[in-house]
Amino acid sequence: MSFFFRDAGPAAGHGRALCPQGSVVCIGAFDGLHLGHRALVGRAVARARALSVPAVALGFEPLPREFFARVARAAPPPRLMLPRAKAEGLWALGCDGVGLLRFDARLAAMRAEGFVQDVLVRQLAAREVWVGPAFRFGQGRAGDLALLQATGASLGFTAQQIEPVQLDGERVSSTRIRAALAAGDFAQAARLLGRPYAIAGRVVRGRQLGRTLGYPTANLRYGGKVPALRGVYATWVHGVGAKPWPSVSSFGTRPTVDGVEPLLEAHLFDFEGHLYGRRIEVEFVAHLRDEEKFPDLPALVAQMRRDEARARAILAGSGPGQATARPHADSPTPAPTTQASA
Asked: Which end of the chain has fewer beta carbons closer than 10 Å to its terminal beta carbon, N or C?
């Protein structure tokens, strides 16, 4: 179990008290940090400030659903957010500490009461614990709000849950966001998230095939996780210049060149320079097409030109933070030449 504190870096949790003065703890998967997660974290941070103690968010890596899918040799669920982005997002929301607990066979087998005593009490000295609706934890998912409240009464903390956050008459959830992304409805995903959907990461060196085809890309790996979307998109890239940079991005396994690992490849329009090692964020605006396998590289390049033209036309009519509700129809705009180099 590892904890990271905003101003003190990592602190390993092995039964040692990390918050001897006490803390307010919120627990959840926090995949995507949507409006429901933000409400939960906001409540915990407000209470921590009132009590003058640290606010700590507890999440799990891998997500429990990913772990159990691996055990069952089933397909893991798509991920909205990678661990580093999750931790950074939780800090940005005001958390003083973030615990990303390794969810493995040992943690899956830990009794709910043991989790409360070892993590919440011994390590975090929790004074208040906040959870979302229908929260369950511990071996066999036996732990719930009632157990937290009962054990807290004897161990010195209180436990409460926030009300569900509703949008359009339904509870905001990561499942709804995944469905919106799969449908190319980035406007709906942004409403559920409270911000545009984006993926952040450090630019890595790829095979440099795009450069030889006239379409150099800034490449982001997805940490062995299953992405929540796949295809070609109009995008904005943050972290390159003073303003977001217009781009067209492909997210997939690159079947035309026999790729295997999911890779996010962003081609920045009219960009000159190198981005290797830089941390960027790719904001998704519109779905252009699904990933497909082309018979040869000339056919792929011809389609890339059409993708670029459509993405330029879409982004010319909108700014960052203005995602579309559905895929755009083919644009007749001719593909401009590019001198990009990334």
From this structure: N
